[in-house]
Design a protein that fits this description.
The protein is mainly alpha-helical. It is 80% helix and 0% strand. The chain contains 17 helices and no strands. The chain has helices at residues 3-9, 11-29, 31-38, 42-48, 50-70, 74-85, 95-127, 132-155, 160-173, 197-228, 233-258, 263-283, 287-301, 304-315, 321-350, 352-364, 366-375. Residues 375-380 have low confidence and may be disordered.
């Protein structure tokens, strides 16, 4: 199936993936401004980013109920709320307020995230087509566009009070395209089948590491380029933009590669690329070399998360597949929001170069985990 036909088939969740990408691309490119405005060090800034994880944890319980109650309106209504929340960083002048705003962003983003992934899964089940990679690719495209646009606005002299509302309007513009009919859900009272916890733990760990690596670069690449390598605002914004662009390329091509190799094979090749990329970025003497590193890393980590989710689905029983994928995704989402805080502590203690080197070590752990998934008794 061509990319265009896949995009047409899943156009409603595609629009939602773009909304989330626009939101976080702007926040990543504005990280140096937000950090300087509240006047905190690297470790404190990283810990403040935990606010997004706290907000996200609430949606893990709220999102399923929101989806059941709102039905076809759940996705566009959630995006409207996200658009409103995405304007709040413009008024984040103090540390407590910044933390609360991050909690709100985590909650609203997580609400949309859970529902849009459920919509993709629903369409895949109905059509027997693989659509997850192309949807995640559009997140990466929107993320990169938002980061570049934000960098351009910063270079033109725009402040947070103008940049965040401008991106929020783009987020809001995606909402009308997110309406779709949803399947009637059977919420019976039968016993819940026992899940294969070993499979959830191992695949969850792979997705967790992939999302953690992605989140560290999204949140800290601009600071690395501007502070460590003395780049300008536009150069700093191009760091997360390069990651987003190459992740989009990796995800668009991921289906073709996966057709020739197993999920484990794709994950291992992707891990090797990502490790090489982050080491290049860590040791880079100039922003240009860092872009090469972030680009290689983007190609690698782009498919680790989606392939980890696909592996979990393939190895689970059909009756348990949705529950298994949901739990693996939750583990990954938590890592996505915890990682920037850990990166901040590492940057404060060892410097950004060594902190990025630690990301390479973390990624390398995927290799032994992938062996356990393939060889271990994971169905119990």
């Amino acid at each position: 199936m061509s990319i265009l036909s896949a995009l047409r088939l899943s156009r409603a969740p595609v629009a939602a993936f773009m909304a989330v990408g626009l939101t976080w691309g702007c926040i990543a490119a504005m990280a140096p401004v937000l950090k300087a405005r509240i006047g905190v060090d690297d470790a404190s800034f990283g810990l403040l980013l935990l606010g997004t994880a706290i907000g996200l944890s609430t949606t893990l319980y709220v999102a399923p109920r929101w989806d059941r109650r709102m039905g076809r309106w759940a996705l566009p209504a959630g995006t409207v709320i996200l658009a409103a929340a995405s304007m709040l960083p413009a008024v984040a002048y103090t540390v407590p307020l910044f933390f609360v705003i991050l909690m709100i962003l985590g909650a609203t983003s997580g609400l949309t995230d859970v529902v849009m992934n459920a919509r993709v899964s629903e369409i895949e089940t109905r059509t027997s087509r693989s659509l997850m990679n192309v949807n995640h690719a559009m997140f990466s495209v929107a993320y990169a566009v938002s980061a570049l646009l934000t960098g351009a606005m910063r270079e033109a002299g725009w402040g947070p009070g103008a940049i965040f509302p401008a991106i929020a309007m783009l987020v809001l513009a995606t909402a009308p395209f997110q309406m779709m009919q949803v399947a009637v859900r059977d919420v019976g009272n039968g016993p819940v089948p026992r899940l294969p916890l070993g499979l959830v733990a191992l695949c969850g760990a792979i997705v967790l590491i992939g999302f953690m690596a992605e989140a560290t670069v999204e949140s800290w690449s601009a600071l690395h380029i501007e502070r460590t390598l003395l780049g300008g605002a536009a150069e700093g914004a191009f760091g997360p933009a390069m990651l987003g662009l190459t992740m989009a390329v990796g995800r668009f091509s991921g289906q073709a590669v996966a057709a020739r190799l197993s999920e484990i094979g794709v994950i291992r090749i992707a891990t090797a690329l990502a490790v090489a990329g982050v080491l290049i970025a860590a040791a880079a003497p100039t922003p240009f070399v860092a872009y090469i590193g972030f680009g290689l890393m983007g190609l690698g980590i782009s498919v680790i998360g989606p392939m980890g989710l696909a592996l979990a689905g393939r190895l689970s029983l059909p009756s348990q597949r949705t529950a298994v994928i949901a739990r693996v995704a939750v583990i990954g989402f938590i890592g996505f929001f915890i990682a920037p805080a850990l990166m901040g502590i590492g940057a404060q203690t060892f410097g950004l170069r060594w902190a990025f080197a630690c990301v390479a070590i973390l990624l390398a752990a995927i290799w032994p985990l992938s062996r356990l998934v393939r060889e271990g008794p994971i169905r119990r």
